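User: Hi! I'm working on a homework problem where we have to compare a predicted structure to a textbook description. Could you give me the structure for the chain below?
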Amino acid sequence: MSDCGCHIEAKNAAERKTLRIVLLVNGVMFLVELGSGILAHSTALIADSLDMLADALVYGLSLYAVGRSPKHKSRAAGLSGLFQMTLAVLILGDVLRRFIVGRTPEADWMIAIALLGLAANSYCLYLIAKHRRGEVHMRASWIFTQNDVIANVSVIIAGGLVALFRSPYPDLIVGFGIASLVLWGGIRIVRDARNLPVE
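Assistant: Happy to help. Predicted structure tokens:
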């Protein structure tokens, strides 16, 4: 095998290892945040859990794309973006539902679980950082992981405001903000994938 071939295979192996780890982390955190969000009556935590699910799907698609043709990588990134946009719409629906029939969430739960999510996503961001200037499927992973960190910090702030004002509105506002962030991330990736030469 040529030096070039060895380099490519080593790069692919490194990408696969990173993606397997972040896929596992996001899958576990999706379950933790979803359960906690339901128990704490927090739209922001549920929104963040769905963001984790979307990222797990993104990492799975990116793992599929490693070592494949540019066409496969572009398609995987495009599907990732579409998943993100679909979940953003679901989050917006939950925000609307809780605005009408919701109750004030448990601020302590929100902050504790969001801190755990922040630690998990910071670790994922650290792992993906070395691949952030790579091909479109890895750039998609980088963008979505950045969004996760922002979302976690937002949930922590919302939890503090809920505790301070005894109001559900900070939680709803942050849930809406996370949905908007997820939607914009999906749009960016779909646009990036469409502009990628596939030949």
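For your comparison, note the following. The chain has one domain: 14-194. The longest helix spans residues 3-40. Good luck with the assignment!
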